[in-house]
Design goal:
The protein has four helices and twelve strands, in the order βαβββββββαααββββ. It is an alpha+beta fold. The chain has a single domain, classed as Thiol Ester Dehydrase, Chain A (Roll), CATH 3.10.129.10. The strands form two sheets. Strands 1-5-6-7-3-9-12-11-10-8 form a ten-stranded antiparallel sheet, with helices on one face. Strands 2-4 form a two-stranded antiparallel sheet. The longest helix is centred in the C-terminal third of the chain and has 14 residues. It is globular and about 45 Å long. This is FAS1-like dehydratase domain-containing protein. InterPro entries: FAS1-like_DH_region, HotDog_dom_sf, Mitochondrial_HTD2.
Length: 281
Amino acid sequence: MTDDLQSWIGRTRRVADEMATPLVRRMAALTDRSDVALDRGAVVPNHWLTMLFDDAQPQSQLGPDGHPSKGDFLPPVPLPRRMLGGRRLTYHAPVHVGDALERETAIAAITPKVGRSGAMIFVMLRHTITGPNGLLAVEEQDVAYLEAKRNAPAPPEKPAETPTAEWRDAWRPDPVVLFRFSALAFNGHRIHYDADYARDGEGYPALVVNGSVSTLFLFEALLRRNPGRQIASYEARTMQPVFCDRPAFLCADAPGADGARNLWVEKDDGAMAIRIKTRLT
């Protein structure tokens, strides 16, 4: 099924963007941050780069799920559903308000797998982000393509071992948070704002919380406890969806001897939904 897709490996695309003042102001509002300066040249939290470099494809080129149609830059994977399975990101320099930025994306690998819910294909994207003074960040994303929904639920997954939490904040993401982030990032994926489509089109019980939203709020909770610090690097893995208007917890353990620590979103049934290993500057 993937032999014809291998020829897509190595394809690249460049997108220009700007860390514009209105975007920084809106992200500060979304995260309840009053300590982020909006003056041109002011340092912006590194992890806010995730709101930039949207696809911005013409409306006529979107698929039924609200994503750009496959077969343009993304390979024509013959599976209908998609989600972000994981990401690894290292920041090399700070970003500032007003910086003109560029991201080069390369298709690094295409890998078929069989998961709990059937056939899957992972497309690894490697992003290289540069600014006025050179390299800013390098990121790898694992985009998972899944089979259409089934009537029978997937067999249960063995629960991940949950670390001992140093802190645990109650969190209940609501539709307004999901909408505002999707609007800010120009993310058209309907599972994050169209409840009827999420339920009837992809079989979810409610709106799905964007993995970038979970990551954003985990980092914000960590940085509130570490003022003046920045995220230096992180590895994230999505294990199961977080759903809108359901109680959850933002958690972290104590840093290890190497300075790394684990962050995770814990659902109300105790299951770990997303796990991040991160370091601070």
